[in-house]
Amino acid sequence: MVVSWNMINHILELSGLADAQTLLDYDASFLKEEGFITEGTEVNGQYTLIFPVASAWKDIIQSLIEKGKGIEIYGAIDDDYGTEYYALSATGEKHHTYIDLEGDDEADPQGALKEFLNKVPDDVKKLFPEYF
Prior knowledge:
Blueprint: E1 2-3, H1 5-14, H2 20-23, H3 29-34, E2 36-44, E3 47-52, H4 56-67, E4 73-78, E5 82-88, E6 94-100, H5 109-119, H6 122-127
Antiparallel strand pairs: 1-2, 2-3, 4-5, 5-6
């Protein structure tokens, strides 16, 4: 499944950010044609759950966390080396943690997950209990 370039730009626009290309530090022309790859999406109430695949999502999510307004984000993106946890609450509280599972002998994946889950509101957890 794919989330189109236009949909990503619409999300960015709603949260007060510029065109996706200005947020990416590489030529994203292939994304304009192919879109942002996902393993699927799920909608429940006012929330949309997106299962992102590929590093392009990291740049978009990081920009939304840092500068976005009027949007909530709760999630994680895995890569070959670890996991990034992101949260942006309705009140503007931000959370970003990267757990390097290969290069950090003192990494605490369970602690990072627990800290992240504490940032997710109960209503989101109730809507998507299998994920939070």
